[in-house]
Write a structure and sequence with these properties.
eight-stranded antiparallel beta sheet, phosphotransferase system, kinase, 24 helices, globular, alpha+beta, sugar transport, four-stranded antiparallel beta sheet, 638 residues, PTS system N-acetylglucosamine-specific IIC component, membrane
Length: 638
């Protein structure tokens, strides 16, 4: 469910990206600025139809290939739902929730039926053409259900909204705190959508009823703004001050190197309100520091409310929106005074904690990270690499679809046996996983987006040879022949079993406790199924079943040793669920444990998780104590 909500939150960014254009048009067209009615009407055309835009955007975002067919199904789902439901109860107005529900249903149905096949006489209606048909049928049934079920649901949502709206500064403070706290998971988009586009109602001068904090503010509701105002001091002053603190705490010899980067992301936050580049520099380094940031955001929201400040934005709380919507605001200058105070608080707290905790913020790394500054990232090098990658994957005839995530290409191919793993690694891949006969994952690293985008037009054009020839990749290939820095993205490593995380030093075995077998951590398990913490391959299953070795798709070798001296149990108390050589993905079951037997017969259930082939990197725990199986971002390798 958590992962599904993350996908929805990510999908919401498609329609939310339209808001800056809508806000600019709506605002500039109003009488106190340019006074051009058709311009305001153009902006209103977007904001008034956000529900169907959400339906289209979410459906496209959930579709495995981002197809326009899914987007069409989303629009059809919304039109069927909203047209049918009012015949049951004409007072129902689902607002943006109609779009969200329609987009989710359409996206899921697209992934289920996009390749369905029918007999020859019905073949025209097969595949993607069938998706709008099944979507219309499904939404007709759903409209019948929601016609009776939605009124009490909407009553509950309205009651929750009324409570938060009437909770005064504690309501806005709680929202501000959760808005930042949920950002690492992507779920902040979900609560933003409810607050921004559904909470509260306002009837404008034309008699139209609008919902949501942003819509009401832009339409002139004098009560709107408390759920937006307090973000301005944080984004315009607080987080830029955090960048200044990171610069001040950087090593003297590295200040010039990191100063430009920190200034750039600080100015971006000040001007546009885009804060993620700053927040991701410290949220995983110090969860405590990030919680402080979330608390300060909540406090800023509460102070702005207490001082009766009403300001808002169409995109985010940066200087552009501050100036653009200044004429609609109440007491906006107070936010600038607040910002100076907030900036001073951020600087002092961040500088103190960075130095006190020796956080490795930019400019404080133990060693200079080489390569990024010297890498040839020009368009020609990327184009050559795209050509060679396509050829190594079996050529255009073998590639069906190209997708990518944070670090890897997720390829659909006709025959994975035609993929040349050695050639892929020679041209820069850090690892290759053949999931099955038609699915291959190629680990590229953080530059995967550029490579994936370069491959798509080449595939469409038959992958012609680069203008300068494939020899221009020689320098790149020389670098690629060097041992790649082994890495694990924090989000790509999950807790393998429910239990308590402890450092290796607390394991009652000197070999593990002193890290003789490698760095890592240990778990005192309370669950009875051991799962794979990573995507990779099972490289060893011990005959006594007490330990399993996995190699990740980035080349890191992991040993999971269940309990101490459990080798003497000769396999009793364990049931293996995988075989040596088997490909596994995060969450796949590896081993079943008889905890009652093991507790009675093993000296300790402490289960070391060891990274056996790390040489220059170290493992740092980001969480401790009891953790549920599947929890990610529990450690980092650096």
């Amino acid at each position: 469910m958590f992962g599904f909500l993350q996908k929805i939150g990510k999908s919401l960014m498609f329609p939310i990206a339209t808001l800056p254009a809508a806000a600019l048009l709506l605002r500039f067209g109003q009488d106190d600025l340019l006074g051009i009615p058709f311009m305001s009407a153009a902006g209103a055309g977007i904001i008034d139809n956000l529900a169907i835009i959400f339906a289209i955007g979410i459906a496209m975002g959930l579709a495995h290939d981002g197809s326009g067919g899914a987007a069409l199904a989303g629009a059809i789902a919304y039109l069927v739902l909203t047209s049918a439901i009012v015949t049951i109860n004409e007072s129902i107005n689902m607002g943006v929730f109609a779009g969200i529900i329609s987009g989710i249903v359409a996206g899921l149905l697209y992934n289920k039926f996009y390749n369905v096949k029918f007999p020859q006489w019905l073949a025209f209606f097969g595949g993607r053409r069938f998706v709008p048909i099944i979507t219309a049928a499904a939404m007709t049934v759903l409209a019948g259900v929601l016609g009776y079920a939605w009124p009490p649901i909407q009553g509950g949502i309205d009651s929750a909204g009324d409570w938060i709206l009437n909770a005064g500064m504690f309501g806005v403070g709680a929202y501000g705190f959760l808005n930042r706290l949920l950002l690492p998971t992507g779920l902040h988009h979900v609560i933003n959508t409810v607050v921004w586009f559904d909470f509260g109602t306002f009837t404008d001068a034309t008699g139209e009823v609008v919902r949501g904090e942003i819509n009401r503010f832009l339409r002139g509701d004098p009560t709107a703004g408390p759920f937006l105002s307090g973000f301005f001091p944080i984004m315009m002053f607080g987080l830029p001050a955090a960048c200044l603190a990171m610069y001040a705490a950087a090593k003297k010899e590295r200040k010039a190197l990191v100063g430009g980067m920190l200034f750039s992301i600080a100015f971006t936050s000040f001007l546009t309100g885009i804060t993620e580049p700053i927040e991701f520099t410290f949220m995983f380094l110090s969860p405590m520091l990030y919680v402080v940031h979330a608390l300060l955001t909540g406090a800023s929201m509460m102070v702005a409310y207490a001082l009766d400040v009403h300001h808002g934005f169409g995109f985010s709380a940066g200087a552009i929106d501050f100036v653009l919507n200044y004429g609609l605001a109440t007491n906006p200058l107070i936010l600038l005074v607040m910002g100076l105070v907030v900036g001073a608080i951020y600087f002092v707290i961040f500088y103190f904690l960075i130095v006190k905790l020796d956080l490795k913020t930019p400019g404080r790394e133990d060693e200079d990270e080489e390569g990024a500054e010297n890498a040839d990232s020009g368009n020609n090098a990327v184009d050559v690499r795209a050509y060679n990658t396509i050829e190594a994957l079996g050529g255009t005839a073998n590639i069906v679809a190209v997708e990518y995530c944070t670090t890897r290409l997720r390829m659909t191919v006709k025959d994975s046996d035609r993929v040349d793993e050695k050639a892929l690694k020679r041209h820069g891949a850090m690892g290759v996983m053949k999931i099955n006969k038609t699915n291959v994952q190629v680990v590229i690293g953080t530059a995967v987006e550029f490579l994936g985008d370069a491959m798509k037009p080449r595939l469409a054009n038959g992958n012609p040879a680069p203008a300068g020839g494939t020899e221009t990749a020689a320098a790149e290939e020389t670098v690629s022949d060097q041992p790649a820095m082994k890495e694990i993205i924090a989000e790509d490593f999950e807790m393998p079993i429910q239990g308590k995380m402890i450092p290796l030093s607390e394991v009652p075995d000197e070999v593990f406790a002193k890290g003789m077998m490698g760095p890592g951590f240990a778990i005192i398990p309370s669950g009875n199924i051991l799962h794979s913490p990573v995507d990779g391959r099972v490289v060893s299953v011990f005959p006594t079943k007490h330990a399993i070795g996995i190699e990740t798709d980035t080349g890191i070798e992991i040993l999971i040793h269940v309990g101490l001296d459990t080798v003497k149990l000769k396999g009793e108390g364990f049931e293996t669920l995988v075989e040596q050589g088997q490909l596994v993905q995060r969450g796949d079951a590896l081993l079943k444990l008889d905890l009652e037997f093991l507790n009675a017969n093993a000296p300790s259930l402490a289960t070391p998780v060891i990274f056996t082939n790390l040489t220059e990197q170290k493992v740092t725990l980001m969480k401790d104590g009891h953790q549920e199986q599947g929890t990610n971002s529990i450690l980092r390798v650096e």
